[in-house]
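Appendix B. Raw example, untouched.
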Amino acid sequence: MSKHAGEAVRVGILDNDACALEFITGLVQRHYARLSMQVTIRASMFPTEMLRACTYTESVPNVLLLDMSLNGVGGLDIAQQLRVRAPHMRIIGMTAYDVELYRRDPDSAVLDELLDKSTLRATLPALLPRIIPSISEDALTQTDCCAQTERERRFAALSHKELEVVMMSANRVGNRQIARRLGIEEATVFSYRRNIKRKLNCEDWYDVLDLYRS
């Protein structure tokens, strides 16, 4: 039996294509069934419905699978709003277009992962198990908000990739090497840093590193 058996995970799926929504929902259901793990899926074609679910309900998804093109609404715009409303939620972007176009966008740092829709059948089941441990940790954090420090609350607003930039920089990894490890342009690292400073309300990058090490 899977070591995750008996645990419950909440998955949100936002895609304006009804066929894609049905396919991804089935993919997620089969994946967690194989893990003998309980799963609650909230699937929607409407961004406003998902935004409400992440704001006004107690069952905010642990993971959101987000289509990057939603009838004129940008997936990155939705992801940024959701990151503020549900900072512990993992956001996985999905696109039927060129993945690299999104990865080169500095705002893509708001996503924890970005997947090509054409390969979801293989990549999504491989990705989801890596997220399960962090979900368990976040669930504990969310049930004990009073015990959170101000530092933890501030860093919770960062995406996984943004946090990686901070951690590598704090370990004296240079920007060129950070870019190589993340598969992005070096100029994009500086864009990430600007986003991180804004989210943490820090004027200088060294203030970010001091806060991280504190």
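End of appendix B.
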